Amino acid sequence: MSSSYLESLNREQGEAVSHFEGPILVLAGAGSGKTRVLTTRIAQLIHEHGIPADRILAVTFTNKAAREMQDRILSLLGAEPTGLWAGTFHAIGARILRRHAPILGWTHTFTIFNAEQSRRAIKKATEAVGLDSRQWSPKAIQAHISGAKDELIGPDQFIEENADSFDPFARNVAMVYPAYQESLKTQNAFDFDDLLVKPVHLFEANAQILDFYRDRFEFLLIDEYQDTNRAQFRFVELLASQHRNLMVVGDDDQSIYGWRGADIRNILDFEDAFPGARVVRLEQNYRSTDVILAAANAVISENLDRKDKTLRTNRVGGERITLAAASGETDEARWIGDQIEDRLVSDPVLTYADVAILYRTNAQSRALEDAFRRRG
Ligand SMILES: Nc1ncnc2c1ncn2[C@@H]1O[C@H](COP(=O)(O)OP(=O)(O)OP(=O)(O)O)[C@@H](O)[C@H]1O
Ligand SMILES: [Mg+2]
């Protein structure tokens, strides 16, 4: 294979892809080719620089992004590179734990609890420490424990900080958390958060194991970096600290996981954590027209914690954006219904399948469903 795939990149993308050693932050907006850059660089490392695939670790946040990454690497290289580790943080964490669980006191055949199973274990632990699980919702306790794990706060530290709290809920969580953690161990199970937290513990407590992975993964690439939490950041930091060949790709304006512990500081502080990091901005968007981008830029520029960047596109024109004010959700749903019907009548090529409606929370679908049902 030649490096012809480089020709289909714009200048900034090419710069990021050809970057070889040292830390690099690729800061880019939506649809600007971040994932394309990351996957092309992997191909470049393997083909141009002769880096064995098993020296590369590529991580992302969601299963969807991980699949997309794997598919693109496959189509760039034409074959599955052997030994390449590419997957979500959770999948990579589970893989490491499978190998070393006994050191932590679990066996190789541990189970991974899903949210439902872990909620049940929390309910039992709540009752075991003498609390009424109807009064203290296991779901709320679970969210709180999960938040603590995101921040790498273990039971001991949590007790220290909350056992004497004025807040009765925090005091209760301080009782349930250690009991829950103990019950996971007795059941030879990890919950989802443990898949991130436990590898960090493993590395921090076992220099030999850390050295092994640190040495093995000469190149680390992280997609969707804006969505990483404290635990994930620590995981990456530990692994990258020897070779320092770390590429992170992310959009500080696109962090959608703030509510689940994603730490925007990870991206804003990347240059502090990895001094000398090169920064490349991708500002060319390939998905949207200039009308859409102008509106997006105007909204995004109001964000407080952000790196300065402005998206641009070659796709000019497109329909103007309409802003409509409605007197309530029923009124709004009726207006949306009218718009759709008018469109389908005036443009017979369109069908309902060409229409999408976005809303912020699930609860908002109610008024829309009612309006559409009324129309048949
Ligand atoms: N240089 C380019 N020339 C033509 N098309 C491109 C180029 N770079 C990216 N694209 C296309 O733009 C689209 C978005 O690319 P990609 O998914 O890599 O962006 P992204 O920044 O990762 O998006 P997201 O914000 O959704 O994660 C894809 O269809 C991709 O093929
Ligand atoms: Mg992407």
Automatic annotation (TrEMBL):
Transferase as a keyword of this entry, yes or no, is: no
User: Pfam families given for it?
Assistant: UvrD-helicase, UvrD_C
Main EC class of this protein? isomerase
Sorted alphabetically, the Gene Ontology cellular component annotations on this record are: cytosol; DNA helicase complex
Domain UvrD-like helicase C-terminal stretches: 290-376
What is a single molecular function from GO for this protein? ATP binding
Presence of the UniProt keyword Repeat in the record: no
Its Enzyme Commission number(s) read 5.6.2.4
Q: Which UniProt keywords apply?
A: ATP-binding, DNA-binding, Helicase, Hydrolase, Isomerase, Nucleotide-binding
Q: What family does this chain come from, according to its entry?
A: Belongs to the helicase family. UvrD subfamily.
Record-given protein name: DNA 3'-5' helicase
Give the organism the record lists. marine metagenome
